[in-house]
Amino acid sequence: MGRFLLTDSWVKLRSALLCVVLAATSGCSAAKQVQHQVQDLSIAGRYDAALVELDKSRLAKSSNDRLLYLMTRGLLLHEQGSYQQSNEVFEQADQLSEELFTQSVSAGTLSFLTNDQIMAYTGADYEVVYLNYYKALNYLALGNLEAAGIEARRVDLKLQEFSDAYEGKTIFKEDGFLRLLTGLIHQAQQDWNNAFISYRLALDSFNATHGVYGVAVPDILWSLLTTTAQRSGLLTERDDYRRRALEQGVTPVKIDALAVVLVNGGQIPVKRERMAIFPTEHGFPVKLALPEFVARQETSSPTNVWIEKEAVPLYPVENLAAIAVKSLEDRIGRVLAKAIARTLAKEIAARKLEKQHGGGAGALVRIFNVLSENADLRSWTGLPARVQMAALPLEPGEHRYRLTAKGRTIEGTLVVPARGVGFAFHRIY
Predict the structure, then answer these.
(1) Residue 147 located in a structural domain
(2) Rounded to an integer, what distance in angstroms lies between the CA atom of residue 95 and that of residue 98?
(3) How many domains does the chain have?
(4) Pairwise CA distance, residues 194 & 157, whole Å
(5) d(CA 360, CA 428)
(6) How far is CA 234 from the centre of its chain?
(7) Which candidate in 147, 168, 293, 388 could, as Cys together with 263 as Cys, close a disulfide (CB 3.0–4.6 Å)?
(8) 237 lies in some domain
(9) Nearest Cα to 271, choosing from 63, 36, 66, 59?
């Protein structure tokens, strides 16, 4: 292999390479293991134990995984029913995600020499938006409509930012369900015009993404459009949406007060590594590693919510599993291009060190290159795979409801205000 000169500088470099490999290969697996543990405890309803495990884990201590830790902790507190605490954590996550939107030059350079796991996790676009979804749910549970409305507007702003940042070329630039929820919150505030605008955007988004995510326009959306158009004085628009609804076989009804039940169900897919090793003229292999999503075992979804004595269908309104997969597919070309460029840069570095320090140095660097080239498998694994919604126009007042999932019955009460919207939501694994 040639001479291996153990100079002080080379010994230091070898030690540095070893440290980087250990950091790059251990952090991601630790994060996934922690998330798996806390989610198992969460499914069992042991939220206190899940929070203890999370707070003492490496995920809580890692600066690069800070956003992932906050996302996980905020969601645990939400599912526990600690809505105010949950929002305090989600607010930290929201602010951090904005700070991390543009990575530092030094972090980007380091990731180019090793892998993206060495960088701070910035969150996928849909994950960042779902911070505001859960903040809005928390505020609704706390009875703070004004604050929920602020989160609804933040959703609008983020979706527009994503569309602008990628010049409309990214797959996740609109979300029919989040636009629908935004409209419902505006309607709950009796802000008819903004509700109508949100519903119109929701309709456009459902139509545009139906072939991608498989979620059709919910029937109730036509009634929401015609109702808010009329209350906004937009009679031409009201008549147009009524006509379009009838063409779809839906007869819109006037909505004075509405009950809405949301079910966040299943578990979003998790990432695994897909890798390939190629031989080189030097006899040492080079490695390419890319992330891919793997669906988790599906559980049966409830089909109805009984509100008082009426069975109300639960319609799919969001397919987060498909959004995650399609979003990764949308950017995998950029990930692959960076991985190829990084692999070439590592090989050039190996040849340079081989000339300077001998064949042994080149061999060690190439081993480092293979060990350090790993896909970034971090993601917010606590998110649901899907969201279902039941909506029923009702008289104002207090209403009992129940639904059955996984052999157990969930019961609750929601209050429907006059000319407003009453909300309830549940997490089902």
Answers:
(1) yes
(2) 5
(3) 1
(4) 14
(5) 56
(6) 35
(7) 388
(8) no
(9) 36
Among residues 128, 138, 121, the alpha carbon closest in space to that of 69 is found at 121
- Pick the closest to residue 414 from 400, 396, 428 (CA basis): 400
CB 55 within 8 A of CB 405: no
Contact 89, 77 (CB under 8 A): yes
CA distances from 90 to 37, 68, 158 (A): 21, 11, 15
Element (H, E) at 96: helix 83-99
Amino acid letter, residue 79? E
How many residues can be counted in the chain? 429
| 70 vs 47: CA distance, rounded Å | 15
For every one of its 429 residues, what pLDDT tens digit does the chain have, with 9 covering 90 and above?
Answer: 344 444 454 444 455 445 545 454 455 567 788 899 999 999 999 999 999 999 999 999 999 999 999 999 999 999 999 999 999 999 999 999 988 876 543 444 444 455 566 788 999 999 999 999 999 999 999 999 999 999 999 998 888 887 777 665 666 778 999 999 999 999 999 999 999 999 999 999 999 999 999 999 999 999 999 999 999 999 999 999 999 999 999 999 999 999 999 999 999 999 998 887 777 666 666 777 888 999 888 777 888 999 988 999 999 999 999 999 998 988 776 666 666 666 666 666 666 766 766 666 656 666 666 666 678 899 999 999 999 999 999 999 999 999 998 788 999 999 999 999 999 999 998
Residue 419 belongs to some domain of the structure = yes
Measured between alpha carbons, how far is residue 325 from residues 70, 137, 392, 415 in Å? 23, 25, 32, 37
Cα–Cα distance measured from residue 23 to residue 321, given in angstroms and rounded to the nearest whole number: 30
